[in-house]
Amino acid sequence: MLLEEYVMEQVFAYVGKGNLNANGYKYIVLGLSDMLGMQKNLTDRIWNLRGKYKVHPDQICFAITDTAYDNMSEGFDDNIKKLSLQGYKLALDGYGNGYTNIKHLIEFPISSVRLDHSLIDEASSESGKALLRGTIQMLENIPLSVVVSDVNDEATMNMLSMMGCNLMQGEYFRANKEAVEEVRSEKDTDS
């Protein structure tokens, strides 16, 4: 718990120094564990970090794991709602591997979903591709931003692009800086 609080403070300090803009990022994603999410004074501590480091809520996205989301207690739920009201982005991390109730995607104040890597692994079959494509379309129609991780090669990137997925991360982009610039320029043209 102390480590999580330390990491949270370091993230706010990093963002407060203007590092996001300097590195071309709009926001940073910070994982919110079950234990930290249930703390009664969580939103007060975050409010204090916001003031201390002069961080706008648009610059932080709190990610909640699929498991934490399903097993959410009343305290966790209250904290998530308060963070949403304060203007923070909320993301569901690992969708597709747990037991998330699809109805919760509409009821809960999340703005993005990161798909579990197992959906990419299963896309080697036609039925797996159909499931991945349908999941992406369903989430974007809600509307939620869809992020796909574990994009490790050009074929996967192309497949996801054809399915309409615009937000990807993985080894392919780390190894191919040109691909990152190409995706950014395409996105800027679309805006």
Give a brief outline of the structure.
The protein is of the alpha/beta class.
Strand order, main sheet: write it out: 1-2-3-4-5-6
The biggest beta sheet, please? Answer: 6 strands, parallel
What's the count of strands?
A: 6
Overall radius of gyration: 17 Å
Q: Give the amount of beta strand, in percent.
A: 5-15%
**According to CATH, what is the class of the largest domain?**
Alpha Beta
Compute the number of helices. Answer: 12
Compressed to H and E, one letter per element, the order equals HHEHHEHHEHEHHEHEHH
Based on Cα principal axes, name the global outline.
Answer: globular
Helix content: 40-55%
* Overall mean pLDDT: 84
Structural class designation: alpha/beta
Report, as a whole number of angstroms, the end-to-end distance.
40 Å
Spans where pLDDT lies below 50 across 5 or more residues: none
**How is the CATH topology of the largest domain named?**
TIM Barrel
CATH level 4 superfamily of the largest domain: EAL domain
Count of folded domains: 2
CATH architecture of the largest domain: Alpha-Beta Barrel
Task: Write a structural description.
- The chain is an alpha/beta fold and 191 residues long.
- The chain is 55% helix and 15% strand.
- The chain folds into 2 domains: 1-108, TIM Barrel (Alpha-Beta Barrel); 111-185, no CATH class.
- A 6-stranded parallel beta sheet has the order 1-2-3-4-5-6.
